[in-house]
Amino acid sequence: MKKWKMAIISLFGMGLLLMGCGKEEAQPVAIQEGVDKCDVCHMMVANDHNATQILLNDGRALKFDDIGCMNEWAHQNGVEHVHTQFVRDYNTDEWLKAEDASFVYDASFSTPMGYGIHSFKDKATAEKFVQEQGKGTLMTYADLSNHGWARNMTQNHGHGDANHAGEGQQHGTQDSNSMHGNTDSQKTHN
């Protein structure tokens, strides 16, 4: 009888242990500059604060050069396939879950595809950025679903490569309200 009780107690204990060892938290995949291309506009993805990615339920990682491209993919393909969306902190390039990040939008902010959105690790950092720039609209992850996603078509979308200048301009639409000139925001590191 003792062996039987010990077996049940052991199985119960192992079950509790296994329940505590659930799936590991999703992690972003490293960006390989010169290799990785945006899954929407097919531009090269720079390993910088503009890079974003989606981890799909099937384990694949999709990489994007601009948060707007990531949004476009999710809109066209449906979020039911998405496990996790990652963005990067503007100041540190640290990967963040998109739902945990804060965002700042202004049509004049320079981003690879002209969507003008930067992501930040927290609201206080985003607010500080708005103060420093003297412009920008603070947004939450939930606010992104109601955002217009217009592109500033006056920006150079070629990532500095003359062979790719203008690539990707076939996706997205130009909104007359987004035409505010090409005033680049300057990134500063403390």
UniProtKB/TrEMBL annotation:
This is Nitrous-oxide reductase. Residues 170-190 have a biased composition (Polar residues). Coiled coil: none annotated. Keywords: Signal. The lineage of its organism: Bacteria, Bacillati, Bacillota, Bacilli, Bacillales. It comes from the Bacteria. Residues 1-26 form the signal peptide. Residues 150-190 are annotated as: Disordered.
